[in-house]
Amino acid sequence: MASGPFGSMCAAGAWFAWWFLNVANWRLCPYGRVSNMEAFHFGCSHQSPGAKPKHTNIVFLKTHKTASTTMQNILFRFAELNNLTVAMPVQACGHQFCYPRSFSSHFVHLHTLRPNLITNHMRFNKTALQRVMPNDTIYITILREPASMFESLFTYYSRHCMSFRRVPNGSLEAFLAEPLRYYRPQEIESMYARNTLTFDLGGDKDNSIKDLAYAQNFVADVEKVFSLVMISEYFDESLILLRHLLSWDLEDILYVKLNMRTESSKKRLSPGLPEKIRAWNSIDAYLYDYFNTSFWDKLSDLGLDCVAKEVQLLRQAQERLMRSCFGGKMPLPRPAAEIKNKDLRPWQPSDKVDIVGYDLPVNISREAQEHCLKYIMPEISYTRILLHSQSLQHRRSYQNRPVQKSHTLQQHIRTTLPRHSQVHRSQPGPSVGQSPGSGTESKSTPKQS
């Protein structure tokens, strides 16, 4: 919420106040902040701002090459702002939940148990997640158009996926001409080479291309579990649906694009390739087409005009945020080697792919630096920092507990702690990681994925 001498003006419902704040002088509401009243008067809200508490128990299934890192960053910042617990992977799993193995509660770091949110990469396993998450958890994921997504996967994992490494000269055209010549379904990273979305969601990536019944049943299972399936190509519109689903404010969904490739790292798809990609990834294509249609149905239910107004508000707030964080200018993404702060350097998958990031200018205030730093922090750095802070909090809370007489009693107390599923806007919440319809939890020791 906007604060300070201009707080009341930011919350005003008059058109002049809106114009003044969003057009005449973006500096009056620093860091891109958008008031609840602003969204109420000019967006899709049909009830008084702040009437419903924010929902905070969330599973975000982070899919590959779908803008999911940007979405993860939104959730990480929301968790920190509201003093929520985020499930983090055990050390043996790295920064993912031992992907590509099916998710297990054993993959969750002990210091982050009884979480409110979980968002790092995993292979979906509903049964195992239900062991970890509260009963009122809302499930969300994101999909991307299969042709553009596969091009990104092919380029990004060209050094890691053997199905891609076998292809002469790294040619996407050659792979799609004879995919079975290069593809080995049992190889550990074969999920990047076929129906990756289906695999991430717990499905069978190698089911017969002619088995329409499987695709239909799989989509039905996904729809039962996930309250919102976001669409990468309409990221801002997806965030508006998310905001209304979770009763969040527009300020909660501000973001800076992360994990982007340079234009030179992208391959242009020649005529005919998109059709070949969709045929090779037929279950993903069916999945995307179905949820793209249902996505627009949800937007229509909310009202396309009011969604457009909220998207406009969001983008205006984004620009204010950018200018506040980057010294009054719009930022230019930089190659990792040019970023001075090591924590802000994104991971580089190979020497053929350039993933760009950001560095904050030195001439902005300390307050602005502290506010803006997390917006541009890459996934691996943010995961490490968040785990560290939660581990410290866990140790402090453990040291302050009264001594118990038995392990059984300690376990009983731990497992009966209240689950905070909502955050009221007046104050932060208290502190505390198969197929979509089923799954068997793995009991084996986690390994590095």
Automatic annotation (TrEMBL):
Q: Where does it reside?
A: Golgi apparatus membrane
Record region (Disordered): 417-449
The membrane topology noted for this protein in its Swiss-Prot or TrEMBL record is: Single-pass type II membrane protein
Similarity-based family: Belongs to the galactose-3-O-sulfotransferase family.
Leader sequence range is: 1-25
Q: What is its main location?
A: Golgi
User: Which InterPro entries is this protein grouped with?
Assistant: Gal-3-0_sulfotransfrase, P-loop_NTPase
- Would the keyword RNA-binding turn up in this protein's UniProt record? no
Q: Which UniProt keywords are given for this protein, alphabetically ordered? A: Glycoprotein, Golgi apparatus, Membrane, Signal, Signal-anchor, Transferase, Transmembrane, Transmembrane helix
**Pfam families in the record:** Gal-3-0_sulfotr
In terms of Gene3D superfamilies, this protein maps to: P-loop containing nucleotide triphosphate hydrolases
Instruction: Tell me what this protein is called.
Output: Galactose-3-O-sulfotransferase 3
Where is composition skewed (Polar residues) in this entry? 440-449
Which SUPFAM superfamilies is this protein grouped with?
P-loop containing nucleoside triphosphate hydrolases
Transmembrane spans: none
Composition-biased stretches (Low complexity): 426-439
